[in-house]
Design goal:
This protein is mainly alpha-helical and about 180 residues long. It has one domain: Four Helix Bundle (Hemerythrin (Met), subunit A) (Up-down Bundle). The chain has 6 helices and no strands. The longest helix has about 35 residues. The protein is globular and about 60 Å long.
Length: about 180
C-alpha cells in the first residue's frame, strides 16, 4: 500500500485554513461597503464557473469510465482550477458585499430555497477535503500506484458530493436571481 499520510496531513491543513477564512468572512461584522460593479458581476461569474466546473467534472467522470486516464486527469484538474476560481470569487463577494439574502415568497424560502441551500453548503463542506485529497493523490502518485491508495474510493464520494453541490449552487443562483422578489 502506498502511503498517503502527507497528502492527508496537507489536506487537513488546507481545509482548516480555508474554513477558517470563510468562517471569519461569514461571521465577522463589517462596515457597509458601497455596492460596486464587482458585487453585481461576481454572482453571475460564480454561477458560470460552477456550471462549467460541473460539466468538466462530468466529462472527467465519463473519461475514467472509458479508461481514458489522461483525459480524466485533465478534466479533473480543470474542475479543480474552476472550483479554486470559484472560491476566490466567492470570498471576494463575501468581503465586498456580504451574504446575499433570499427575500422571495416565504413558502419557497422555507420549504425549497433553505433546504437546497443547506444541502448545497453541507456537501460543499464535505467535498472540499475529498477533492483536495484526490487532486493531491492523482497529481503526485504515479498512475501504476494509484490503485494502492484510497484515490478511487475517495474519488467516488468526492464526485457525488461535488456534483450535487455544484448543481445545487446553480439552483441557489437561479433562486437569488430570478425568484428573489419580495412578497407584497
Amino acid at each position: 500500500m502506498v502511503s498517503v499520510r502527507r497528502h492527508t496531513a496537507l489536506t487537513a491543513i488546507v481545509t482548516l485554513v480555508a474554513y477558517t477564512v470563510l468562517s471569519y468572512l461569514l461571521l465577522s461584522p463589517r462596515e457597509s461597503v458601497e455596492v460596486g460593479w464587482a458585487v453585481e458581476v461576481l454572482p453571475h461569474a460564480i454561477a458560470a464557473v460552477n456550471l462549467t466546473g460541473l460539466i468538466s467534472l462530468q466529462l472527467g467522470y465519463r473519461a475514467i469510465k472509458r479508461g481514458d486516464v489522461r483525459s480524466h486527469k485533465l478534466f479533473m484538474l480543470a474542475s479543480f482550477l474552476l472550483i479554486t476560481a470559484f472560491l476566490v470569487m466567492y470570498v471576494s463577494r463575501l468581503f465586498l458585499g456580504g451574504v446575499e439574502v433570499y427575500r422571495g415568497p416565504e413558502i419557497l424560502r422555507n420549504f425549497v430555497y433553505l433546504p437546497i441551500l443547506a444541502i448545497h453548503l453541507a456537501l460543499s463542506i464535505i467535498s472540499v477535503p475529498l477533492v483536495f485529497f484526490n487532486v493531491l493523490t492523482g497529481g503526485t502518485i504515479p498512475i501504476a500506484y494509484i490503485a494502492q491508495t484510497p484515490h478511487l474510493k475517495v474519488g467516488k464520494i468526492a464526485y457525488a458530493t461535488w456534483s450535487v453541490s455544484l448543481a445545487l449552487g446553480v439552483v441557489v443562483y437561479l433562486f437569488l436571481r430570478f425568484l428573489n422578489v419580495p412578497e407584497h
